[in-house]
Queue: 4 jobs
Job 1
Amino acid sequence: MGRRGSRLPDLDLTDTERRTLEGWARRRKTAQEIALRARIVLVCADGMSNMDVSRRMEVRRLIQRMVEAERAAAGTAVSEAVR
């Protein structure tokens, strides 16, 4: 069994914050990146661990691609950053 990191503090959303995020997640005109982030925050606020969220939302590969793109833009290869 893999080692789990330290427990993150609870993510408490106000009713207004929750309604705003739910609106972004449902609205058809919201940019998909923002809608995905809104859904991730909502799931995290429900108490899921980061690993469970990444599995449920199937975002591991997406996050990896985003990190690679950011590093490529900054001129750092992923293999160099891992060292």
Job 2
Amino acid sequence: MTRYAHESTMTFNPGIDNKPETLLKAKADNNSAAHSEANTSSQLLTVKDHKRSITIALIVGSLLAAINYGDKIIGNTMVNTDWIKLGMTYVVPYCVSIYSVWSAKKKH
């Protein structure tokens, strides 16, 4: 029976130094390994990935812009908020595309 909740997760390994400072160092080493893994995963995206995502954003964004704002652009009735929304029409597909690439590469 354990007195503290954290005691149940700690195990005693015969032949291994089980002093608290050694266990804390091992935990710190694991954290630094996870941190270095996070650093490499942030470098997964290449210039080619960004170019592909921009291409997708231009195609999808243009299609959506034509559907949603085509009549306002042709009729010259766009207001400031419409232009901001139009810009977001291109930004959102780019973000979705680049996130998809990053997510797929991170799994491998």
Job 3
Amino acid sequence: MGGSRGGIYGGASTVEQGPGGGGGQGSASRDAEAEVWSRRVRDVVSASPANRRCFECGQRGVTYVDITVGSLVCTGCSGALRGLNPPHRVKSISMTTFTEAEVLFLQAHGNEACRRVWLGTFDPRTSARPDARDPQRLKEFLQDKYEKKRWYDPWGEGGGGGIGVGVHPPPHIWRHPPP
């Protein structure tokens, strides 16, 4: 039986349904689709110089995606993000699969957009970014950023230390993508 599964942003892909709702074309088809989405995540990493550095500490070589806010982070910061309240949903770029909704969410965000929102009023002259080698300072910085929303600018106008544009995203854009 053929079925159509529409994307959350209006895109649609046709998926053959087998008995019980599984993919009629087997695991090879699902593996190919998963590889397409994983490749698109890797494309997001290489699309912008900001996406090649950890959004949290600035270290080169991102290995995880913070699905909660749409940023790219290093291994150390991924663990710290999981320890927040509420914990951020973090996925490995190379060891996991991504859904269409997650990829579209990440493409709409990335580190520059996250910087404009989550560090919108951050001033590097009066506040310091943490050293990733100091777990306590990193944790405090992340709590200030996400739990207390110390530098939060929902419209992304502050620019996070001079970076940013006055683009007003729709209010729904920062919601967590569906699981």
Job 4
Amino acid sequence: MTQPLTGNIRLLKTIVIVLGALIVVSLGVVIVTVYKRMSQMTAGDAAPTVAAEPAPVAPGTPFTAPLLDLPAGARLVDSAVGGGRLVLTIALADGRSELWLLDLANGRRLGIVTLVPSAGD
């Protein structure tokens, strides 16, 4: 009765050893691949950033921003600066809001995003 079990145990031991070796080899491949990709990464391959900050303006350089005409009854609610851009949140008289995107280098308006309340609100 012990004879058939011995053969099965040898087969199971062989399978466990082979699968263990495959796991070790696979883990080695993953580690080597990650290492190679990280060592080959250059500054151009890095994750993109929001935007580069604009070059500083020399002291004493005059800066005149263009006039921005707000619609009648509109008011400035908020502003945010980042990536060489200025975002103004404008509350309109009819309840809608707009986001105005301005370029800080020249004050030019790059675009307007209109926000409207959803029908469920």
